[in-house]
Automatic annotation (TrEMBL):
Belongs to the glycosyl hydrolase 43 family. SUPFAM superfamilies: Arabinanase/levansucrase/invertase, Concanavalin A-like lectins/glucanases. GO terms for molecular function: hydrolase activity, hydrolyzing O-glycosyl compounds. Keywords: Glycosidase, Hydrolase. It comes from the Bacteria. The record marks 128 as: Important for catalytic activity, responsible for pKa modulation of the active site Glu and correct orientation of both the proton donor and substrate. GO terms for biological process: carbohydrate metabolic process. It comes from Gracilibacillus boraciitolerans JCM 21714. This is Beta-xylosidase. Residues 323-393 form the Beta-xylosidase C-terminal Concanavalin A-like domain.
Length: 400
């Protein structure tokens, strides 16, 4: 029996949105204030994964200059319909006090590699948006509703509104279809349809150690929704000794063979409950009960080892760990803070075999730091680089 070893995407890969198109599986993850926006990983067996793209590569798609720390891209949703990939995402500009300035957008592409379109603005009523393609061809946009007013529940429910591809905008009535369970802090809504039911998967309980995934269902897309009596279907809250903690915020996928899995975020704490690698992506196997509820095979607590689907082994293409900067483009795993690769603040050609960075703003800046990073994926690593530092023009690199 082949097994899935969790996390399948180690290191900072939160809020997974999983999708199958034919024999191919994709996971899109949040990137927050790091550019380019959204990472997409590919597999054919759910076991082995490779990074294949970052859709938001232009400032016209994503401008995060000035975005607050931990703002930027929250919870993308990847879907596919009629030979087109759809990517929904939130750009969080600020989150001061009771306020969250979060704007939701849609981009599309004919292939997963792109090119991806210019963004279509959807709304600004909350975050964690998703798009559901119904059997009749209608498209439904969902997001959690953020209510900043004093004396209200900030996590006010799940908004549903129809999206018109021809008009490229949301149309019709907005309806709050679900206000959550007693766990509260309801977010990350996704809808699935099976056996005449619409299933609403949400994340609840907050993003700390009480995080969870919950399910509700309805015969009509706009509700009312019946809450699964055994919720949450996934959580680490009752298993403090487990190696995978903070389990929640997930999405379902059905294999070619009719098996179901949930991709979800998790964290692996080391000292003082700190998850130094960030929130990671794991996968659990699911099954359906006789009364049409979905369950995680090993119970609500996430497992490190999971039975993989019976699919041919996929040989994932891993990017090399060593980068000598002799290529004309950077490897996909490089990220920069807020700014884009379009600006002339770095060069791979001025000194071949070197990555040249031009110093600009300080480490406290929310605008233009000259910083290039890559994710840590392991607890124990050895890193080495060679640096030439010539601070001749410390105040202005264009001044003689």
């Amino acid at each position: 029996m082949k097994t899935i070893t969790n996390p399948v995407l180690p290191g900072y890969h939160p809020d997974p949105s999983i999708l199958r198109v034919g024999d191919d599986y994709y996971i899109a993850v949040s990137t927050f204030e790091w550019f380019p926006g959204v990472e997409i990983h590919h597999s054919k067996d759910l076991v082995n994964w490779e990074l294949v793209g970052c859709p938001l590569t232009r400032s016209s798609q994503l401008n995060m200059i000035g975005n607050v720390n931990s703002g930027g891209i929250w919870a993308p949703c990847l879907s596919y319909y009629d030979h087109t990939f759809y990517l929904i995402y939130t750009d969080v500009k600020s989150r001061q006090g009771a306020f969250k300035d979060s704007h939701n957008y849609l981009v599309t592409a004919e292939t997963i590699e792109g090119p991806w379109s210019e963004p279509i603005f959807m709304n600004s009523s909350g975050f964690d948006p998703s798009l559901f393609h119904d059997d009749d061809g209608k498209k439904w946009f969902l997001n959690m509703i953020w209510d900043h007013r004093k004396g209200t529940n900030s996590f006010a429910g799940v908004a549903l509104q129809e999206y018109s591809p021809s008009e490229q905008k949301l149309v019709g009535t907005i309806k709050n279809i679900f206000k959550g369970t007693e766990l509260g802090l309801t977010e990350a809504p996704h809808i699935y349809k099976k056996n005449g039911y619409y299933y609403l998967l949400t994340a609840e309980g907050g993003t700390w150690y009480t995080h969870a995934a919950s399910v509700a269902r309805s015969k009509t897309i706009d509700g009312p929704y019946e809450i699964d009596p055994t919720n949450p279907i996934l959580t680490s809250d009752k298993s403090k000794e487990g190696q995978l903690q903070k389990a929640g915020h997930g999405s379902f996928v059905e294999t070619q063979n009719g098996e179901w899995y949930i991709a979800h975020l998790c964290g692996r704490p080391v000292i003082d409950d700190k998850c130094i690698l960030g929130r990671e992506t794991a996968i659990q196997k699911c099954y359906w009960t006789d009364d049409d509820w979905i369950r995680v095979v090993d119970g609500p607590n996430p497992s490190l080892e999971v039975e993989a689907p019976n699919l041919p082994t996929f040989e994932a293409k891993k990017l090399p760990d060593y980068d000598d900067f002799n290529d004309t483009a950077l490897f996909l795993y490089w990220n920069v803070l807020r700014r884009t690769f379009e600006e002339e603040w770095y060069s791979l050609t001025e000194r071949p075999g070197y990555l040249r960075l031009y110093g600009e703003e300080s480490m406290s800046s929310l605008h233009r730091q000259s910083m290039m990073m890559r994710r840590l994926e392991h607890f124990k690593v050895e890193l080495e680089t060679k640096v030439d530092f010539t601070p001749l023009k410390i105040f202005n690199r264009w001044q003689d």
